[in-house]
Amino acid sequence: MVDDDLKKTFVIKGIGVSPGIVIGKAYLFDRFDAQTPFYKLTDPDLINKEIQRFRKALRESEKQLLDLKNRLSDLGGGMDPLYIIDVHIMILKDRKFVDQTIQNIREMSVNAEWAVRMTVDKYRDIFDRMEDDYLRGRISDIQYAGQRIMANLTGKKRAVLDVGERVVIIATDLSPADTAQMKIDSVLGFATDIGGKTSHTAIVARSLEIPAVVGLVSITRDVRTNDDIIIDGSAGVVIIHPDPEVRKRYEDKKRLYEAAQDDLLDYAHLPAVTKDHHSVEIGGNIEFVEEIPSAIAHGADGIGLYRTEFIYINREELPSEEDHLASYRSVIGVKGLSWATIRTFDLGGDKFYPDKKTSRELNPQLGLRAIRFCLKEVELFKIQLRAILRASVQGKLRIMFPMISGIEEIRAAKRIFFEVKDELLAKGEPVGKDIEIGVMIEVPSAVIVAEELAKEVDFFSIGTNDLIQYVLAIDRINERVTYLYEPLHPAVLRLIKQVVDVGHKAGIRVAMCGEMAGEPAYTMILLGLELDELSMNPLAIPRVKKIIRGSTLKESKALLNKVITLSSTAEIQACVDAAMRKHFPEEFPVNGQ
User: Fold this and answer.
1) Of the given ranges (47-56, 162-171, 462-471), which has the lowest mean pLDDT?
2) Helix (H, G, I), strand (E, B), or coil: what is residue 565?
3) Whose CB has fewer CB within 10 Å in the chain, the N or C terminal residue?
């Protein structure tokens, strides 16, 4: 039986070297797992025989590499991997390498395998002392050549991947020859312990357009074959045992990434303004600071949602205030982004909290989570708030509290916030000015008491993921009822409209940061609702901007006024689909996707 702790969501950050997102099963690739045999040559006649055995292994290794080079060439892609194999062949022919190994056999009276290992170890000592990172990393070429020679000496067959299904390859490192021995059609992506942007894995992955993350240090220790795994080659992140919510979010990211077209990026840095001059702010939703470059590249005006609970993963101990501070300093005041919206952590239930004493809840979505958890664990909450306030001096900050269900919760959260702020100011700590405070509207009761909540905050942000779930009483992760998850359900649209109307009447901004905001098919409806900000997965931004710039507020409001009177989701969906096909036939063809 697998320990439950091993199945918790676990994230490792490395170096993204080949973009893209893959979700699948891990396969732990072991290039050569035999221990190097060792024995002394007691008979002088055996020394010459051992040297001959070594030379034969050199010839066999060269022949194999040439064969692999031909196979790799047949796979297509760039020429860089082929040059790397040429380097390995050159090492096999290198006079110093060969002579040193023969000298080890003669002078130490050891078998050829041990002599090869001694030669490789000597080279490693030399390369480790080099100051240049690139040159120091080239020891892997010599190690690879040595492992191939030893494989031929011992008669061990090298690993060949043909598992009959598509997998994510996990390895210490991968060479072009390794990938040539794989059935590439079965490979979803690569994740390795070592490597950089110029490593073998990086070159091969980019050549074959396979997402890859390298430099993960411990991935081969943390993953086992058949573990569920996600690779984000753009952000340099690997997620092991993703929980259902994280998995769904990355499935959406994967879909958006694959649907993205180069020409859409032409819209990324254009303003989100309709043809009749109605402007909308566009934010990016992120989990990791490594996603910020993608948010900027895809045209985000600011960070509309930073999910801070991810700071708590991978930890046996709780993150310190300095850990929090380092993360927030990476998000606030970033060049190219006008603001950052930090959501206080949505912990509790089954989300990341590293306290084994916390009991597992039968229904965590309705349990002790988000603001409820924060108000119970006040000291943890204060640590986060102190870090946010200390980082706020760097730029424009918006802070919002999740899962607010009533006036008491927002007042309690604000009381703690201002208490922490006053303590910092009393100590002479600088704090940013004009910090905006907001609430996430994701619980039906929050919609009902929105007028009272609006008096307490500077903005609303509608979290449609949870709002739809709670309004329609479905678990959006449960495959049996996902067909009921309908963003265009009349109840959902009426609730969103109510929130926007109440917010604007009170003179506060209303944003939307749920997945609904990034769905182009809903863009005209959201324009008609007159939301002030749409925040979404950065990959969705260019296409949404294209729809906004091709729409008018007048047409969008007319569409909303029409659908808001309809009584069924099917009627609303048909009406919206027809409108989108009419205005954007190239984006929404009749037969759909």
Assistant:
1) 162-171
2) coil
3) N
Helix (H) or strand (E) holding 212: strand 212-214
Structure token pair of residue 363: 């229904």
CA 33 to mean position of chain CA atoms: 31
Q: What DSSP state is assigned to residue 161?
A: B
Q: Distances in Å between the alpha carbon of 157 and those of 31, 88, 273, 367, 378?
A: 10, 19, 62, 54, 59
**Residue 32, amino acid:** F
**What residue spans of 209-264 are helical by DSSP H?**
219-222, 244-259
Instruction: With beta carbons less than 8 A apart as the criterion, state whether 41 and 272 touch.
Output: no
Q: Which residues of 197-225 are buried (b: 16+ CB within 10 A; e: fewer)?
A: eebbbbbbbbbbebbbbbbbeebbebbee
Residue 322 dihedral angles phi and psi, to the nearest 5°: -70, -35
H or E element that contains 130: none
Contacts of residue 125, Cβ cutoff 8 Å, sequence gap at least 6: none
- CA 519 vs. chain centroid, Å, equals 20
User: Closest Cα partner for 172 from 224, 119, 215?
Assistant: 215
Q: What distance in Å separates the CA atoms of residue 88 and residue 148, rounded to the nearest whole number?
A: 10
Per the CB < 8 A criterion, the answer to whether 457 and 441 are in contact is no
Q: Is the pLDDT of residue 262 over 70?
A: no
The separation between CA 206 and the C-alpha centre of its own chain, rounded to angstroms, equals: 18
Nearest CA to 443 out of 405, 487, 496 is that of 405
Token couple for 500: 């926007």
Amino acid identity of residue 477, one-letter, is: I
Please name the residue that has the structure tokens 């969008």: 556
Q: If we measure between CA atoms, which residue out of 185, 170, 163 comes closest to residue 75?
A: 185
All domains of the chain in start order, with CATH: 4-26+163-240 (3.50.30.10), 44-154 (1.10.274.10), 272-583 (3.20.20.60)
**Element (DSSP H or E) covering residue 589:** none
Query: What Rg value do the Cα atoms of the chain yield, rounded?
Result: 29
Instruction: Assign 409 a pLDDT band (cuts: 50, 70, 90).
Output: very high
Q: Comparing C-alpha atoms, which of 453, 578, 476 is closest to residue 524? A: 578
pLDDT of residue 478: 62
Cβ-based burial of 59 (10 A; exposed 0-12, middle 13-18, buried ≥19): exposed
As a whole number, mean pLDDT of residues 2-15 equals 71
Give the model's pLDDT for residue 357. Answer: 46
Alpha-carbon dihedral sign for residues 51, 53, 59, 61: negative
Q: How many helices (H) and strands (E) does the chain have?
A: 23, 16
From the CB of residue 196, how many other CB atoms can be counted at a distance below 10 Å?
A: 15
Question: Whose CA is closest to 116, among 18, 168, 50?
Answer: 50
pLDDT tens readout for residues 294-311: 899 999 999 999 999 888
More confident residue, 160 or 16: 16
Catalytic machinery residues = 200, 513
CB 449, CB 407: distance < 8 Å = yes
pTM above 0.90, yes or no: no
Alpha helices in 109-228 (DSSP H): 112-128, 133-137, 139-154, 176-180, 200-208, 219-222
Q: What is the pLDDT of residues 69-109, one digit of tens each?
A: 887 666 555 555 677 788 889 999 999 999 999 999 999 89
3-state DSSP helix/strand/coil % of the chain, to nearest 5:
50, 15, 35
Q: Which two tokens stand for residue 129?
A: 């002392």
